[in-house]
Design a protein that fits this description.
This protein is an alpha/beta fold. The protein has ten helices and 13 strands. The radius of gyration is 19 Å and the shape is globular. The protein binds iron/sulfur cluster.
Length: 319
């Protein structure tokens, strides 16, 4: 499969069939914590990357033949999904053809555009990233395309919230020492108050980040963020800083090597997840031998982060 992967376990969407509608690591940001590494195609211009019917054919095939339940069709992929100018059609058709709810995980940077807001109207859930309340921290953490402004982005997300009949969530990624101060969190709260999302998810980088210096937020930062960001009437804040649990569906792949290379491009794999994927083909296979061979052949990278071992695609560029 070229555009669709999984289902993979998701902390918010259960068993989620991932859809990638853009070229690898095409994004309007280059976040310091990105699990896909440095942005290789930085742009704020939308385009039609692939034939939409090819993407839809894969979605239908994967949703109909999956061995695991498909709780959501999730547009997320290998960069920023709203950069695909066919997204509105893809969302509408994916929902109608599979009869599954559709979610979009976006950095929110293009929601100031009317066409992007219209495209997302047919989704059931939109989760938008917002990590900073001040322009300096926004540029430091998200490293946006120079044409983008935080004021415009927040205004666009707020406008979308007023028009959208589905569920709008905000996800905040906390990076230790960067957006953990009381001052920054209060500024972020002011931005979130303008948007009035249904829910705020508090997250921290749990997988190997683009920049080696990035550290997950410590307990003090997490407690402060919950105290400050939960302090609105009617907005719930939820912690998703624990690693996800659940199984990966690798039935669409011809063998463990192909499954590991493909899945790790979208989703850096903890060691036990890589072993589960290999075992799903046969209990007889020597997982350690396969992983060692793929790393030696430079088809996978092996990275230690925050006390765990991860396997990541060799296409991911990081410090
Ligand atoms: S985390 Fe998302 S928004 Fe940030 S660089 Fe990666 S793909 Fe782009």
């Amino acid at each position: 499969m070229k555009y669709v992967y999984g289902p993979v376990p998701s902390r918010r969407f259960g068993s989620s069939l991932g859809v990638n509608p853009v070229l690898f690591k095409t994004c309007s940001y280059s976040c310091v914590y990105c699990q896909l590494g440095w942005t290789q195609h930085m742009t704020a211009v939308r385009s039609s990357f692939f034939p939409p019917e090819d993407i839809l054919a894969e979605i239908e095939e994967a949703a109909n033949n999956s061995r695991l339940p498909v709780d959501y069709i999730t547009f997320v992929g290998e960069g920023e999904p709203t950069l695909n100018s066919d997204l509105g059609f893809l969302i509408r058709e994916a929902g109608e053809r599979t009869k599954r709810p559709v979610a979009v995980i976006t950095n929110g940077s293009l929601l100031w555009r009317e066409d992007v807001r219209q495209d997302l109207m047919n989704a059931d859930v939109v989760s938008a990233e917002l990590d900073a309340g001040t322009d300096g921290v926004f540029r430091e953490i998200n490293r946006p395309h120079p044409s983008l402004s935080l004021d415009e982005i927040v205004g666009g997300i707020a406008e979308f919230r007023r028009e959208f009949e589905g569920r709008l969530w905000i996800q905040v990624m906390l990076v230790e020492g960067r957006n953990c101060s009381e001052e920054e969190l209060l500024a972020l709260r002011d931005r979130i108050e303008v948007i009035k999302p249904e829910r705020v998810y508090i997250d921290t980088p749990i997988r190997p980040p683009a920049e080696g210096w990035v550290k997950p937020a410590g307990p003090e930062c997490l407690v402060r963020a919950h105290d400050i960001l939960s302090d609105f009437v009617g907005i719930e804040s939820m912690d998703i800083t624990s690693p996800e649990t659940g199984l990966f569906d690798s039935s669409a792949f011809s063998g463990p090597e192909e499954a590991l290379i493909s899945l790790s491009k979208r989703h850096p794999l903890r060691e036990e997840q890589a072993v589960q994927i290999i075992s799903s083909f046969s209990d007889e296979i020597d997982s350690a031998a396969i992983l060692t061979a793929l790393v030696s052949a430079r088809k996978l990278g092996c990275v230690e982060y925050n006390g765990r071992t991860y396997y990541i695609s060799s296409e991911i560029r990081r410090a």
